[in-house]
Amino acid sequence: MKAQPLSNSNSLVDRAARRALSDVAHQEPDLLVDGFPFTPGLWNIVVEPLKPRTMSDGGIEVVDVSQEAESYQVTVGRVLKAGPSALEGKTSSGIELANFAPGIRSPEDLIGKFVIYQCHVGQQLTIRRTDQKLKVMKITDLLGVTDDPYAWKFYI
After folding, report:
1. What is the tens place of the pLDDT at every residue in 63-91?
2. Where are the alpha helices (DSSP H) in 26-112?
3. Strand partners, 82
4. 11 CB-near residues (< 8 Å, 6+ apart)
5. Could you give the domains of the chain?
6. pTM attached to this predicted model
């Protein structure tokens, strides 16, 4: 039996099928597993911001303009890489950076954790081959660590 090509119909089922096929075709590599092309220096860290939602809480597809607007508001991301001095030293007020969060005492402990960071901080980088967006920022720009990154809402 030969598979039927997707029609050019704009029905909800056809749009969902096209989106699922495009998601499979354009899967981004996991930079924690597949290697990372950048090593941050000193107290800098590299964060991969969460992707904007494609479906609303009610199950309605979010339009591209709203996704783009939400991507500017997202302040939660996963730490991919940390510089060698990320948790060494003190802040200007004398607080030890090693006391950043319970259970996180070294840069290796921070990698893979979801963090909340300040809005409009860091330098945005784009990996050319995958078009993934990353942020490089200082450890002091972080507000905290979260176990549930999807618990946060970003209003447009």
Report:
1. 777 777 766 677 899 999 999 888 888 88
2. 64-73, 107-110
3. 45
4. none
5. 28-147 (2.30.33.40)
6. 0.70
